[in-house]
Amino acid sequence: MLDGINQVGKEWSDQEQAGFTSKEAAWLKVNSNFKDLNAAHQKEDSQSVLNHYKELIQLRTRSRWCGLIVYGNFEPYHTPGKPLICFRRVLGEKRLLVAVNYSDQKVSLAYDRKFSGLIHSNYSDATPFAYNTCELRPYKAAIFLPAARAE
After folding, report:
1. Looking at the whole model, is its pTM more than 0.85?
2. Burial bucket for residue 14 (CB in 10 Å: 0-12, 13-18, 19+)
3. Do 102 and 92 form a contact (C-beta atoms < 8 A)?
4. What is the DSSP letter of 19?
5. Helix (H) or strand (E) holding 40
6. Domain boundaries along the sequence of the chain
7. Edge-to-edge strands of the sheet including 94-101?
8. Domain 72-146 class?
9. Which tens digits make up the pLDDT trace of 13-43?
């Protein structure tokens, strides 16, 4: 049950009380970092968490891959001994591979098909891939488009 100890008001802007209220004191405290971390700043930053989630929602609802993302079967892709979470979405011959490196080290991923493109990532830098392997930088999440058939 929530006891309110860790609850804070939403940091909407860098204004007084983080834009959460116009009152002198809010009933919920405001984080001390609201001047730097707030919705108004994230809206303007193309690399923000807010804009990353907006892009993911767009992929799921309005992209050419939305049917595959919504209706495709979920298939775990096992990477024994590696700090990766990987899974496929498969619908007929169409497939996507989602790979997340949850470590603070670069990790190499070998896949059973050739990669043909990168659809989305939480970092703007390129994700180098060659044939069926790629290297994921620390904490990188990426959605790959594999080739239609194993080569």
Report:
1. no
2. middle
3. no
4. G
5. helix 39-44
6. 72-146
7. 73-76, 84-91, 94-101, 141-146, 115-121
8. mainly beta
9. 877 776 777 777 666 677 778 788 888 888 8
